[in-house]
Give the backbone structure.
Amino acid sequence: MRTTLTLDDDVAVALERLRREKDASLKEVVNETLRKGLEETGRSPRRPRKFHTRVLQTGRCLLPNLDSASRALAAAEGEDFR
């Protein structure tokens, strides 16, 4: 099949570099590159691995009440925290 393509400059340079490295025709390099790209595009994307957070038991809370910051400081540092 014949067709006309307009390539971006960076793509044309990359294809020309490949063509020289492989000592192949532009047609061969373009077809091989398109096949690889189409194969990669057809694959389903990899799912990211699930991340699990480990639970760490730290024991019971040593402070009687954390609702009041001043009470918590008083219990932790004594009444002289101020």
